[in-house]
Write a structure and sequence with these properties.
Blueprint lengths: L1 E4 L4 H13 L8 E4 L14 E3 L8 H15 L6 E4 H14 L4 E5 L8 H13 L2 E4 L2 H6 L10 E3 L16 H7 L6 E6 L8 H9 L8 E6 L5 H7 L7 E3 L7 H6 L2 E4 L8 H8 L4 E4 L4 H4 L6 E4 L4 H12 L2 H18 L2 H19 L1
Parallel strand pairs: 1-2, 1-4, 2-3, 4-5, 5-6, 6-7, 8-9, 8-11, 9-10, 11-12, 12-13
Length: 362
C-alpha cells in the first residue's frame, strides 16, 4: 500500500501519520513515499519509507524525475497507490499510471483557483483515479465544477484517536510553565502560525478583552511564517499572551484549556476543533469551510464571521463568562466526536475503499 505525500504539516501530516500507524496490518502494509523532510507528527519506529523528491510547488523537471523514480519503486512493491494533496496526486497519480497500478487520492484542502494547464492536469488525474476522497463537504463543493463523477467522490472526514484524550484534567504543568494562577482562564490556539490560520485576528480580539477579562490568558501552540509578526503584536503583553512553539503531544494542553479558538481564514476541515471536542472543550471558530460542518453552532461551540476580531472577542467573552454552558458544550463536543469523528470510523471507511479498489483492479 503506497502512501504518497509532499512535504506537509497540519491536517495532511496528521492524516498520513494515522494511516501509517493504524492501518490494519493483517490486510495492508503501508509504505511511505515522500521527501526526506516529511516527518510524521509522532515517532513511528517501524515505518517503511522510500525517498522521493516531491516538491511543495510545481517544478516540471523535478516532477518528471520524481514520477519516473516513483514508478520504478512502485513496480513489484505495491498494489495500490494512495496520494495525498494535489502535489502528491500529480506525482503519485502519473507514477501509478506508468506502473499500471490503481490509484486514489485525498483532497485535504479547499481547491485553489487554477489556470488552464493546472485545471487540465487535475481533470486527467481525476478521470484516471479510481476514487477521490474528500475530508469535508466544503471540499466536495469546490470539486463540483471539475467534472468529477459524483460516484467517484467519497466523503471521509478526518477522525480523532479518542484514547489520547482520556483521563482527568492535568493542566497544572502548563499553569506552572507559564506562571498562571489558579483563577486564570486559559484560551488556547493550536496550529501553523501562518496567515490562513488567522492567529493575528485572535490576538487582536484577545487584546480588546484585557479590561473585561483580566484573568484570561492566551496560549499559542505551533510554528510558522507568522511567528515574528505575531510576537511583535503581543510584545507588550507577554504576561497575558504566551508562545510555546511546537509540541509533540497536545492532548494535555487541550485538557488544561478553558476554551479553544480556531480563527481560520480558510479551512478544509480542521483537526484542532475535533481534538478540542475530543478533550471535552468548547470551541469558538470562524464560520468558514469545514468548520461549519464540524462545530454545531450553540451546542458544541460558537461560530463567528472570519476576519472579524470584534465578533471573535464577543464570542470568547460569552463562553468564558458562562462556565455551565462551556462545560455543556465540551461534553456535547466529546459525544459528537465519539459518534461522528472517531479515528476507528475513518480507518474502516478508508480500508473499505482500499479493498474495493483492489478487487476491481484484480
Amino acid at each position: 500500500m503506497a502512501e504518497v505525500v509532499r512535504p506537509a504539516t497540519g491536517g495532511i501530516r496528521h492524516h498520513v501519520s494515522d494511516l501509517l500507524e493504524h492501518l490494519d496490518r493483517a490486510q495492508f502494509a503501508p509504505l511511505l513515499f515522500a521527501p526526506d523532510d516529511f516527518v510524521p507528527d509522532r515517532p513511528l519506529p517501524n515505518l517503511s519509507r522510500r525517498s522521493v523528491e516531491i516538491g511543495a510547488t510545481t517544478r516540471p523537471r523535478q516532477d518528471y524525475a520524481a514520477i519516473g523514480k516513483l514508478a520504478r519503486l512502485l513496480q513489484g512493491n505495491c498494489d495500490i497507490v494512495h496520494a495525498h494533496g494535489l502535489r502528491g496526486a500529480v506525482v503519485g497519480g502519473f507514477a501509478a499510471r506508468r506502473a499500471h497500478l490503481p490509484y486514489l487520492f485525498t483532497v485535504h484542502n479547499l481547491l485553489p483557483a487554477m489556470d488552464f494547464i493546472q485545471a487540465a492536469v487535475f481533470q486527467i488525474l481525476t478521470k484516471n483515479a479510481d476514487r477521490v476522497i474528500v475530508v469535508s463537504q466544503a471540499i466536495a463543493q469546490t470539486l463540483q465544477h471539475t467534472g468529477i463523477p459524483p460516484e467517484k467522490i467519497a466523503l471521509i472526514p478526518n477522525g480523532v484517536d479518542l484514547s489520547r484524550f482520556e483521563g482527568t484534567n492535568d493542566g497544572e504543568s502548563l499553569r506552572e510553565e507559564c506562571g498562571f494562577g489558579a483563577t486564570d482562564r486559559i484560551v488556547l490556539g493550536v496550529g501553523r502560525l501562518s496567515p490562513e490560520k488567522g492567529f493575528d485576528i485572535l490576538i487582536e480580539a484577545f487584546l480588546t478583552l484585557q479590561t473585561r477579562l483580566p484573568e484570561a490568558r492566551l496560549v499559542l501552540i505551533g510554528e510558522g511564517s507568522e511567528v515574528a509578526r505575531l510576537r511583535a503584536m503581543a510584545e507588550l503583553h507577554s504576561d497575558r499572551i504566551h508562545f510555546l512553539g511546537h509540541r509533540l503531544d497536545t492532548a494535555p494542553l487541550y485538557r488544561a484549556a478553558d476554551l479553544v479558538v480556531a480563527p481560520s481564514r480558510q479551512e478544509g476541515q480542521g483537526i484542532v476543533p475535533l481534538e478540542a471536542m475530543a478533550a471535552a472543550r468548547a470551541v469558538v471558530a470562524s464560520r468558514v469551510g469545514g468548520l461549519v460542518e464540524t462545530i454545531i453552532e450553540g451546542k458544541t461551540g460558537l461560530l463567528v464571521p472570519p476576519e472579524d476580531s470584534s465578533s471573535l472577542a464577543a464570542a470568547i467573552e460569552t463562553v468564558l463568562n458562562d462556565p455551565k454552558r462551556r462545560t455543556a458544550m465540551g461534553e456535547a463536543g466529546r459525544r459528537r466526536v465519539q459518534q461522528e469523528y472517531s479515528l476507528q470510523a475513518q480507518l474502516q471507511k478508508i480500508e473499505a475503499i482500499y479493498s474495493d479498489v483492489y478487487r476491481r483492479a484484480a
